[in-house]
Fold this sequence. Notes:
The complex is a heterodimer of chains A (113) and B (111).
Chain A: E1 4-7, E2 10-13, E3 19-25, E4 31-37, E5 43-51, E6 54-57, E7 64-66, E8 76-78, E9 87-94, E10 103-104, E11 108-112
Parallel strand pairs in A: 2-11
Antiparallel strand pairs in A: 1-3, 3-8, 4-5, 4-9, 5-6, 7-8, 9-10, 9-11
Chain B: E1 9-13, E2 18-23, E3 31-38, E4 45-50, E5 53-56, E6 61-64, E7 70-75, E8 84-92, E9 105-110
Parallel strand pairs in B: 1-9
Antiparallel strand pairs in B: 2-7, 3-4, 3-8, 5-6, 6-7, 8-9
Amino acid sequence: NAGVTQTPKFQVLKTGQSMTLQCAQDMNHEYMSWYRQDPGMGLRLIHYSVGAGITDQGEVPNGYNVSRSTTEDFPLRLLSAAPSQTSVYFCASRPQGGGTEAFFGQGTRLTVV
Amino acid sequence: LAKTTQPISMDSYEGQEVNITCSHNNIATNDYITWYQQFPSQGPRFIIQGYKTKVTNEVASLFIPADRKSSTLSLPRVSLSDTAVYYCLVGPSAGRRALTFGSGTRLQVQP
């Protein structure tokens, strides 16, 4: 199993550009989440999903969209990139009945100039 | 969701035991206590989870008093490779919620 795979690992965007951060998991987990982590800070929840077709907002959802058309994939879309969105983005998944053990991807380091 | 409070940073030396305490006064009856470890440039990694009393695995021990308003992560005989940020989370094991992270405790292990 590959676990949670995030692509790309690094990305530089210009202000105003849009892009999609990809996240895929092969563990058949129902729950998936997106976090952002600014330098020296903890993780902040952007959006999450408890199953295909169901998404909800986290602490910092503005400027981001998500969809969950399959169990495996949970892409994060930046609508119009801003320098304030420069951060490291982590995707995580966990099974519905599996306690609070989540599995994280390696992260996408995004710089908006 | 229950709010957690933990020290911002801690320093230790190799071979020492490190105890990181987390306060969670508003923990709910069905909440579990979970600890994660994060190395630089990596995603967090699950360490240990518990509900009450004591839980031990190959990495750490988790001590939870009877009132469950706090918990202590114990790392025996730390090494330089234990330098990381440690997060305490409180939340239900099931249900339609995502896990939320606080600022964590930055542990620096010196030689």
